[in-house]
Amino acid sequence: MNNNTHKRNTLQKRIVSDVFCEMHNHPSAGMVYEAVREKFPNISRATVYRLLAEAAEEGRIRRLKLTDANDRYDVTLKPHYHVVCRGCGAVADVDSELVDEALAERAVGCEGFLIEGCHVEFVGVCEGCRQEQLSQN
User: Fold this and answer.
1) Structural domain total, the chain
2) Which of 63-67, 95-99, 102-106, 112-116 has the highest mean pLDDT?
3) Residue 123: which region, alpha, beta or left (left: phi > 0; alpha: psi -120 to 50)?
């Protein structure tokens, strides 16, 4: 790899990281790509997707695999839960004192399994979708 490729990759990595960190909506890779492209139109979709996947693999961000949604990404690494709007797909954090380990310790009917974690996802309707529903009625 020559130095120009390395510098470009580092620049692209910084650009994607900076744009992602400005987004506070648990964006999908496509959402990050669109936001990056607004500022840097020459960046490829494959590059953005690859850099997000690498960051998740390295533990710098968290990849969320939510029900009925594209993978989303989260900058918050500490254990927490999410709520997904069934109307628009918006994702938000849920503050909770419970941690995955506490839930796993109380898991029943898991004989023979070594519990390594759990996934909790709340589903609801966001404020924007509720207001839209009210205005339509």
Assistant:
1) 2
2) 63-67
3) beta
